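Before relying on records like the one below, remember that each one covers exactly one chain. Contacts with other chains, cofactors or solvent are not represented anywhere in the record.
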Amino acid sequence: MAFQIPFKFSGSASEAAIAERSRPSKMMDYDQPLVWITLILMLFGMVMVYSASVALPDSPKFAYLEGRHEYFLYRQAAFIAVAIVAGYCVFRIPVAVWQKAAPLMFVGTLVLLMLVLIPGVGVSVNGARRWLSLKVFNLQPSEMMKIVAVLYAADFTVRKQQYMHKLTKGFMPMAFAIGVVGLLLLLEPDLGAFGVIVCIAMGILFLGGFNMIWFGGIGAILVMIFTSIIALSPFRRARMFAYLDPWQEDNALDKAYQLTHSLIAFGRGEIAGVGLGNSVEKLHYLPEAHTDFIMAVIGEELGLIGVLVVLAMFYWLVKRAFDIGRQAIALDQFFAGLAAKGIGIWIGVQTFINMGVNLGLLPTKGLTLPLMSYGGSGVMINCVGLAILLRIDYENRVLMRGGRL
């Protein structure tokens, strides 16, 4: 019996170990927190779009709405529904397919950017020609170019990995491609979208191993280029001077009008806000309150607490994108890893610029808040980008389980 007990114990331990190994993995099939954060941001944005736009039908500019105060709410809800369906379809597509299609998608989106500039084809709003009419809603190719730039830059970096330390073969081809995009965007004009796309391309090249010395020099040149664009454009130059002194009377009533009223909205909100739906600035004082300046309405109605909650969710989203990218690279999925980080750069930079403009940290620029601002193209492309990120994470989990793609 003295020898049977250890033998029996050893057998039980072995059986327990085998049973433990045979249990299904507790790892989820997909990143549920990523899905929930995305849905919360979109639905919260829909509520704030309704709050920010409820008074617009009373304005002469929107007289055609004839008192339909829920108009923007219903349209935003429809945009979100279509975006979720599009995101689900995109999630079903393997990452390898996106890599193969990236160059062709880049060329196709360039064609759309050209079509926008053709009179009678492109739709002009407030002096900017950025949309193509699809009857049901207007498509904004510059929004499409953001996710396409992520995929194209990631594919380029992987294909040209051996040339990343060389200026002529590692940078110039990408610089030429982004330069063509920039020229088309400046003709619309859309300097904000161009800035985001440049950050995406430069960020992915940097993460892909581009020479640090060249990177620093090119970064300085880009700063000079953007400064020159502002200096040589009377309209942009006037906006810059107004930004530097927004409370000067002439500026406050003209170029800095949006900025001053955005700051007033944040000031009224204080810590806890004036209450959901109780904003005063949205009552025809703050232009574009439901699009570019929706954060100002959040700050007024929900205060510092509301702003910090939104900021925390976007921070988590960007951090999660970089975590997924690092995991993909660790699994030797270099395109997927760079694309995931590129999506994080895109969402992070655009969020920073939008919030910076609303808070007066940056000059006024027409960029929406991802997932939250009113607009069909923006919400749909944001959803598509995050669906690709979710797919990258899904394929990471398949590989970590020992599966094959």
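Confidence is low (pLDDT under 50) at residues 1-10, 17-22.
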